[in-house]
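Contributing new records

If you add data, match the layout below exactly. Sequence lines come first and carry their own label; structure lines follow with theirs. Keep one chain per record. Anything else will be rejected by the validation script.
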Amino acid sequence: MHTLEQLRAGELRGVQRLQLACGLTEFPDEIFELADTLEILDLSGNALSALPADLARLSRLRIIFCSDNQFTDLPEVLGSCAELSMIGFKANRIARVSGAALPAKLRWLVLTDNLIPELPPQIGNCRQLQKLMLAGNKLKSLPAEMAACINLELLRIAANEMASLPAWLLELPRLSWLAYAGNPFCAAVEAQAANAPIVEIPWNQFTLKNKLGEGASGHIYRAECGTDTVAVKIFKGAVTSDGLPDSEMAACIGAGAHASLLPVLGKVPDHPQGAHVLVMPLIPPDFANLAGPPSLASCTRDTYPDGKRFTLGAALAIAHGIASSARQLHARGIMHGDLYGHNVLHCNTGRALLGDFGAASFFEPGTPQARALQALEVRAFGCLLEELLERCDRPVPAELSALQAACWHADAAARPLFDDIERRLSGLRQAALDNPF
């Protein structure tokens, strides 16, 4: 974090990234003195409502964050910034997005938690767009021109006012991570998932201990419940970049028990502040995240530590466990929506646990749309499988490489579904056990 005083004193000359959060109501002109080097500008957490008309003077600017401000329009000047590829205006008051505000090199657009009723047709000109985050707005539809966004991989449209999913959306060749819960068209199936039977445990049976972690949707604490030590997730109740905590809660409850899903022991019906609360077992300490989340550079792909390697057996075990858990979710009408390595916990033996249902969505199994949605998530699995195979410590069997390629098929209808994927991976695991060298 930098200060306005540092900027005005000239102490920040030469910086590539500038972050100011100091109650700004106007864009500081001194920022233009950094034009020769500035690539990332973060003005989140201020009180700005406009950007200067000559913002393009920042000729090297690639990324701009203006979340938690007071913008009512997405500034049109953004479209004149030649190198700008990432725009983040989360949690403003934006009710209008002009086509002129969309720069030619746009790859990543975050407009979560605003008041946007429609997108401009010019978004179809954003052919490099890979990630589009629109949860928590007032969208009733998506423009048909978006069908031209053939590089779009991640889309968040949860918690809007949409009456249907457009058919063209599920035909996008690279779409892999989709979240749409909390819209009218899926309300009935979401309610059905939320009403799945689950044990209820009174709040007064818990003694909270230390915080174990915090995500976008809630806080996780270690807690004592009688003689047991458990994990308790207390949901925040606000819209996240993926969607609504209510939808995540419904997916967790509806997912059911599976060896490769993070288990749920019950829910708390009487939290003092009315918060949703889930109770889960503590995960053994030998489990760790499979990967790190995408970076600004990787956009939609996970990051891994340098030198991260897997035995072929461990890679197959992880892939098989995740495919098996995804098969169960799909059979229950749940799409995970965020099938990524950073949402997988694993241990050295290759056992894997899929968690984080913040982007989960709901569908009616057996319908033509259900098949297309499942195939979409198969592509996400293909990305995960590719990452595992790239890090194997021995040559990958041709059949396994062929399976990964099939998951990536540009024609979604040609991709295998998870029942077939699970079966094929089971056979490959057995073959690897029979021939360990």
